[in-house]
Design a protein that fits this description.
Blueprint: H1 3-8, E1 23-33, E2 36-42, E3 48-51, H2 58-66, E4 95-103, E5 106-116, E6 122-128, E7 131-132, H3 135-141, E8 144-147, H4 159-173, H5 176-196, H6 202-235, E9 245-250, H7 252-258, H8 263-276, H9 278-284, E10 295-300, E11 305-306, H10 312-332, E12 340-343, H11 352-364, E13 369-373, E14 387-392, E15 395-398
Parallel strand pairs: 3-13, 3-14, 8-12, 12-13
Antiparallel strand pairs: 1-2, 1-4, 4-5, 5-6, 6-7, 9-10, 10-11, 14-15
The structure holds adenosine-5'-triphosphate (ATP) and magnesium ion.
Magnesium ion binds next to helix 2.
Amino acid sequence: MSKRDVLHQAPARAPPVHNMHSHFVSHLTLSNFRNHAALDLTLDARPVCLFGPNGAGKTNILEALTMLAPGRGLRGASLTDVARTDDVETRLQPWAVSARVSLDGEETVLGAGAERTPEGGVKRVARREGQPATASMLGEAARMTWLTPAMDRLWSGSAGDRRRFFDRLTVARATEHGQAAAAYERAMRERQRLLGDRVFDDAWLGALEREMSAHGAAIAAARVETLQRLQDAIDARPDGAFPKAVLALEGALESRFECGAKSADVEEEFAALLRDMRGRDAGAGRALDGPHRSDLKARHAAKNMDADQCSTGEQKALLLGLTLAQARALAADPGAGASLILIDEAAAHLDAVRRAALFEELLANPGQAWLTGTDENLFEAFGQRAQMFEVRDGIVRAA
Ligand SMILES: Nc1ncnc2c1ncn2[C@@H]1O[C@H](COP(=O)(O)OP(=O)(O)OP(=O)(O)O)[C@@H](O)[C@H]1O
Ligand SMILES: [Mg+2]
């Protein structure tokens, strides 16, 4: 074989899947993001496995990716928290994350970061193709779901954490859900301010309550749809390595939609309730009814046991099953599509059989998987079907 033939031979590794329905990051750069001064990664569609010792900067890379989705990333961090600090440079450094993302065969360049303002403050910047972008413009170009060890206590933790988790799942499917939630919160805060100041101005309060009820109904309807799509994705599968969950939303507006109520009726009832409860909410210092108080419940189907009563390992497995179901639900949704799955340290808690099952699921997902672990051996079952990177002190090199 001539030298030329050798050069043109297909590489020994499995060919990357660049099909029309795939979604993957082909290039990622970080600058001054946590312990990464400058990172530049060129990737193909295969799963990305990051391994290295504790404190190396693996989770930071996943976090950087999540800064490209609507919200504040997987740690819920502030703009200044993620800016790299070191002994020499203690001032805030502007940071940036940029990714070339391939979605259904089309490439988009997304960017997120913080810049100093002339007044000495910091402001968030988001870009798509170099132009200023809104959260939904980012969300449409980079769909992702993530799972971190911090979420291990989700089922036994606060309703607020579960609600935020579920709202993130909803935003991935319907990006406008994020704006509806923000508009609802704004109207609710304004109403509470008036009630707190004892300004019982009917027209003013009525206008805010109508806004709350319109956005509130949209929020509840979107959550109900997300739940149905998720449950369908879960139920479509036979029992496998991950336990199946039976999901339920606890919330008055959500329940009305589940009973088939019309949106206009739900809105009207909620506006009337808010009007009636002005005195009570004034006394309580907050609105006691509404979708801002809803909760997500899950039962372990095979054991018929509430998720919060399950063992730590079972709770984690339920969440992993839910994350995989979310990716399948998005892929099956004509309004959404393939999504990235980011799993921080998942492999470490799974036995070899479940780990292999997880990898097979991730390989079947049309979106790229990103995984972290302390040891390269954890990812052995992938063989050549994944790309491996070693992370050490904020330096990443292909393994
Ligand atoms: N703003 C920042 N500037 C510089 N370094 C930071 C900043 N925020 C966090 N770090 C550092 O980043 C390092 C790596 O964090 P990361 O959570 O990514 O580690 P990891 O590789 O996931 O480790 P583990 O295996 O323990 O989960 C930590 O040592 C942390 O102190
Ligand atoms: Mg970590």
